[in-house]
Design a protein that fits this description.
The protein is mainly β. The chain is about 0% helix and about 45% strand. The protein contains no helices and five strands. Strands 4-3-2-1-5 form a five-stranded antiparallel beta sheet, with no helix packed on it. The N and C termini lie far apart (about 25 Å). The model has no long low-confidence stretch (mean pLDDT about 90).
Length: about 60
């Protein structure tokens, strides 16, 4: 049950110390997504997270895409 993510998707972190935080996908690579929130993880240094540890919220940011 692997989700497919696109750049600009808004996701919710399910695991880790950042669980419950919302992020925007800035890059997709195999089994990982690179996400940023503009607060702790800027677009210049996004966080690398496994796809199975994030969940799509069904929203999309056209500005990032």
């Amino acid at each position: 049950m692997e989700d497919s993510f696109n750049i600009g998707d808004i996701v919710l972190s399910k695991m880790g110390r950042d669980s419950g935080r919302h992020y925007i996908v800035v890059e997709v690579e195999d089994n990982y997504v690179f996400i940023c929130d503009g607060d702790y993880h800027k677009i210049a240094k996004p966080k690398k997270k496994k796809i199975k540890h994030v969940q799509s919220v069904g929203a999309f940011s056209e500005y990032v895409a």
